[in-house]
Design goal:
By secondary structure, this protein is mostly beta strands. It has one domain: Beta Barrel (M1 Pyruvate Kinase, Domain 3), CATH 2.40.33.20. Helix content is 13%, strand content 33%. The protein contains four helices and 13 strands. Strands 1-6-5-11-8-7-13 form a seven-stranded mixed β-barrel. The protein has a three-stranded antiparallel sheet with strand order 4-3-12, with no helix packed on it. Strands 9-10 form a two-stranded antiparallel sheet.
Length: 180
């Protein structure tokens, strides 16, 4: 499976919306250079309040552009970076990846998938009902979180819109994504 980067975004402040950039630098073990969530330990405020020494498994946030398309069909005009993502992708079914999948992005960057993002009420500040629109139920009634995935940077590199994404699955047995 291969895909492409459609947008890259970051914000030096703890705000939901991240500004689109012409390129971002991923830093090994830290995340997106210049982003408020960059660091070895947790940076998301709710996680810092629980345990500021916990490892940062949420260094990079990735959303598939196909989710934006789905949300538009439901009446929500969402743009890349607006839901807090650093990397917007196309052509990769992010939600079907296994924990530990490696995403080779651009020439050198490698991001390891750590888990699912749990959509939060902040999404309703963008549009009322947006959080609910990022949740669904599967055939068995299990909750499906569609607000994308989180990862850590293994190998640094510059990434830009148009860069290819190559998927490297982890060794078997695969572990499904869980909230991180």
């Amino acid at each position: 499976m291969t895909g492409v980067v459609t947008a890259v975004s970051r914000s030096p402040k703890h705000s939901l919306i991240k500004s689109n950039e012409t390129g971002i630098r991923l830093m090994a073990g830290l995340g997106v250079e210049g982003d408020a969530h960059q660091g070895v330990t947790v940076k998301h405020r709710s996680r810092v309040a629980r345990d500021p020494t916990a490892p940062n498994l949420r260094q990079v946030h990735l959303i598939h552009a196909e989710l934006h398309d789905e949300l538009r069909q439901k009446g929500f005009t969402v743009q890349p970076g607006q839901m807090g993502e650093n990397i917007t992708t196309s052509g990769v079914d992010l939600l079907e990846l296994a924990t530990g999948t490696r995403l080779h992005i651009g020439e050198t960057a490698v991001v390891e998938v750590t888990g699912l993002r749990n959509p939060c009420a902040q999404l309703d500040k963008i549009y009322k009902g947006l959080m609910a629109a990022t949740l669904d139920r599967d055939a068995e009634g299990n909750l499906v979180r569609k607000a994308a995935i989180m990862g850590i940077v293994l190998t640094e590199g510059e990434i830009r819109p148009g860069d290819p994404i190559r998927i490297e699955p982890p060794p078997l047995p695969h572990r499904p994504l869980a909230v991180v």
